[in-house]
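anyone seen this seq b4? input:
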Amino acid sequence: MQSALGLQALSWLRQLEQRLKGSGSEAVNPGKKAAAQVVHWCIEQELLPAHSANLPKVRFDLALLTAIATAQHQLGQACFRDNLAAQSRLAAAKVSQQELKSAGLKPRQQRVLLRLNQPTQQAGLHTEFIDTDWQQLPLDQFDTLLVVENLDCFYQLAQFTIELPYQQPLVIYRGDRLYSQGCKALKTAWLNLQKPTIYFGDFDGKGVSIALNEGYQAMLLPAFVELQQQASAAMLPDAQLKYLAAIEQRPTCPAFQPYQQLLCQQLKGLRQQQMQGMVLDPIRLIGA
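predicted toks r here
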């Protein structure tokens, strides 16, 4: 296989094409790294004269870029006009023999970890959790999105007494480095549907900050009297204190204000794991 252009050179060509759509042509300095790679590649493909690399300027126009794209496809190389960022490695392999590991969708980029509302039995296997592409989920069939912060609590969600006024919740793990991108993409699509979004996590500075700042309408919590009895300063680490000033300044729903004051003024928190055995309801965060 002949030499192929790397990501930096492909990106340079994409940016150049955008400029050429307005200017028609551009004189390029072939001494710069990405430009030099493209010029040498074009010389190899006989798209530019051999002396071009020694010129102070090399002129590029849209016709030359079209010739470059055609040659890349004919050679089985990644083409600068292809939307590499939106392709999986499998999809990219169908149009190019060139492997660009750092480009395109990561294997778990669109995937979420989901808890089934009704576990299934098949071939003797009990299935309660699935890893799936969020884009394949029929979002219109669910009436609320429940995002769970901690993985241990997500897997042991049956240990919690959750009272939701919804029939078909979509329950997913918020994600770590493996699932966070999928969760974020799903939540963005969900918010466009204007359906309820509930956060279930630690009642501490970071947990409440996430709930208030990432589009959630409610936070799953025990009744205030019970939380007040169980909360403690020990469950609000010093590292969480940096979130409190912003939380205290946020206008919130009257139902959440006692929780807000307990956290920000009495400096008490409650870990998600400690909420076992308590009846948990969605407490509205913002609005009337």
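Strands lie at 25-28, 58-61, 111-122, 125-133, 144-148, 161-162, 169-173, 197-200, 218-222, 279-284. The longest strand covers residues 111-122. kinda curious what u guys think
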